[in-house]
Write a structure and sequence with these properties.
elongated; three-stranded antiparallel β-sheet; 152 residues; 5 strands; two-stranded antiparallel sheet; mainly alpha
């Protein structure tokens, strides 16, 4: 199974090496809008990794990209948005037919909650069906709410 504290120890080590830089450390993501600063940060990262014996997989390195897909989102100079393929998948979701499908649907919508306008208001009537005390009866109103969420 591995050492359960390994991610914490990795993060602490990387914070010690690169903690003063504005980067995300899960994968090593250096993303700055200014190309000159971006290259400067890359040089610093490479030097520090070399100094501390770190390495990168060259096949997985993408340098000077205008946008990056990361954890279901596309990051670019314009901002953060859900990946297009995920939006297409959400728009193709079949209306939930039972409690498990509804929970899956609400989970997907919740993942992109920051991107959905009025998410709480739109989801509230659907959440009542997640209680075992409420029978799962899908009416046109619920269908319209689900459709609205998919279009957001």
């Amino acid at each position: 199974m591995g050492i359960c504290t390994a991610p914490d120890e990795y993060q602490a080590c990387m914070d010690g090496i690169l903690g003063d830089l504005d980067i995300v450390l899960v994968y090593l993501l250096v993303f700055l809008q200014d190309e000159e600063k971006h290259l400067e940060h890359l040089r610093i990262v490479f030097k520090r990794l070399k100094k501390y014996g770190g390495s990168l997989n060259g096949k997985k390195c993408h340098i000077l990209r205008k946008e990056v897909d990361y954890l279901g989102y596309t990051l670019s100079a314009e901002g953060i948005k859900p990946q297009a393929k995920n939006i297409q998948a959400i728009q193709k979701i079949v209306v939930p037919r039972n409690l498990n499908e509804l929970r899956r649907f609400l989970g997907i919508i919740n993942y992109y909650r920051d991107m959905v306008t009025n998410k709480t208001t739109l989801c509230k009537p659907l959440h009542r069906f997640t209680s075992s005390k409420v029978p799962f009866t899908w009416l046109p109103m619920e269908r319209n709410l689900a459709d609205s969420l998919c279009k957001e």
